[in-house]
Amino acid sequence: MGSAEARVCAECGFRTPKWLGRCPECGAWGSLDRVRADAAPTVAPAETTPWPQIDPAGAERCSTGIVELDRVLGGGLMPGAVILLGGEPGIGKSTLLLQAASRFVETGASALYASAEESTAQLRSRGDRLGVRSERLRVTAESRVDSLLAAAEQLDPGLLIVDSIQTVHTQSTDAAAGSVVQVRESAARLAAFAKRRGVPVILVGHVTKDGGLAGPRVLEHLVDAVLQFDGDRHHEHRVLRAKKNRFGAIDEVGVFQMTDGGLLEVPDPSALWLAARPVGSPGSAIFASAEGSRALLIEVQALVGEPAPGPPRRYAAGFDVQRLSLLLAVLERRAGVALCSRDVFVNVTGGIEIEEPAADLAVLLALASSARGISLPIDSALFGEIGLTGEVRTVPRMEARVREATRVGFERVVGPRGGGGLTKPRVIEVDDLSAAITALLGP
Prior knowledge:
Helix content is about 25%, strand content about 25%. By secondary structure, the chain is an alpha/beta fold.
């Protein structure tokens, strides 16, 4: 039978035979794309398996050969897992995956790297710099998903990497590569291959100017894990985070250092980030963070300008500027540090992004230190969430934060009361923001 046209919403998958300006299911405007609606073939019922007969060995993880990557994945690659890796252009996504593929094949397995953005010669040039040598790593510059999957069926690799999902296309739709229809259909074909053959598939994804993953939202729902590779291209530090992970925690981080020879794993990020810390400078505070199974020490810097006419500026790098505005109001109302007419700048050093509210206390103490022109004690670290009434609220994993601070050499840690089992006198427990300022900067 012939085929007819249908319209499918790129956001929610709603299907309709005619064009509509707005999807009646999710309310998105202009999201209905044209696809061919062929007559549905007769299909056989799906095979089912009794629960006790499922082989648990089919869920054993395999290592990528990179400890920091395995940590973020939850212990390694799950068979049949589909992983989406996003990050800004030039941040090192292809470098990370090429190194992972090279380490992966050292165990005797094979890997297929599909580079639809670069030629094989360009990939070889980078691989030589990274020390890639094994013949078990196969490379193709194919951008057609159908041909790529045919090659994967024939080679039966232990790992498939597609770089990137926005540059490959399938012949099942006439849409251009990178369109929401092509991204969705290509990802669905690759995910079906992963589940059927039990082969882990890693997809590289582009990001928008706002930092979000490009393409339809359904892409993030389709994959098993979404990893974000962050960092400032002007700094050598790179941080890998899990935004979604069906097989592990989403708060784990992996830290890397970009060098001429590729990405190096950083086993002790605290020492790396604090190496260039200024001594005795007002406006510098050390935040004891807890990311997944590890605790990290991160420097937060603040600069408060002199009163000037016009609206004051609020700028934050590595910290949410909206939360900064909220914290400034608390600092003025609850602690008496008036900054409403002064420019305020906050920077998390090393290009690191802080998302947990436990950084509130460190940010405010750095601001108070800069406003008063008095440096915080060099042997102090801070953590704690600040409420609207100025109280210092408890945060998860306080003992781990204290242990990391004392391991690096900090003599005192200022945090919320009620840590339970925290070692004294290293810990200064405070009830509110004013008490914390008094403890470190004086009355």
